[in-house]
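pls read this stuff:
=====
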Amino acid sequence: MSPLSAASMVRRDKLVGYLLAVALFAAALGLRIVVGDGLPDGFPFLTFFPAVLVTAFLGGLGPGILCATLSTLAAWYFFIPPFNSFGLSHTTIVALAFFVAIMVVDIVIIDQMTRALEKLKREQAVTASLLDRQKTLFAELQHRVANNLAFVASLLSLQSRKLAHNREAVAAMDEARLRLETMSRIHRRLYDPERLDAPLGSFIQDICDDLVRSGGSKARCRVDVVDAALPPERIITLSLIVVEAITNSLKHALRDREDGLITVKLGRDGDNYALAVSDDGPGLPDGFDPSASKSLGMRILQGFARTLGGQLEFRTDNGLTTRVVFPQQA
């Protein structure tokens, strides 16, 4: 138990505080009598100082004043000449005034300090309670958002069954459903309380592995990510770029292969970050200009790159590399 906790317990019971004052005064008086012969003249209050200070700290203002009063009377009667009397002289008045002044200042300072510490402790408890409540509400909100995304994806799946006669419409519905399901999984992972301190590389690795498994591919994912301090909204956008690039690789470059390698790298490029998602497929067809493509996947990648304030580019070198360079600060 901390000293402040002990003081709080004593202060809540006034009787205990006053009994403590009497007990500490008696102990100080007994100690002063025992060591009296070994002390030179002029130390009448020596053992009473700590007794008053401890009483004021543990018991509060009232018990501190009681201990100080009893100590003053005992020192005056027993240890200030003329002994065993309440006689007054100029020296006695000065000594008593000095002790009383010091005790008053110390008791007031200790009492105010203890009250301030107790108030701070109560405010910290309230703050901790509000923080826990905020975390709970935030987690519930994120859980509901992820559930809503999954629910909309289910609605799209049901709606696509009514459009079985229209392959293009079914394909569009399925593509939208898969994207919503992916966003829901990303959202759950990102705001999972048990994974709040997980490194970004682990988060990206899970996304890559999840996409490969859900696509039924045997491709391997290799992730190399620097320790980037990014806010959640930028991590979501970055993750969606990774999802779109990996999905394109699985759909086109690695579709008919038994194996394959997908590499995701995030590193620093001067004052920017550089994200590169590569595969070991055949690369882009001759004459194909991704920037001029009107496919939904390309438009989505370009939109996400703009959201990060970055530039999107494609390179063909032993496969396709989708690269986005964006500033470290939004």
In short: The chain has two domains: 1-197, 200-330. Residues 1-197 form one domain. The CA atoms of residues 19 and 63 lie 8 Å apart. The first strand starts at residue 220 and ends at 225.
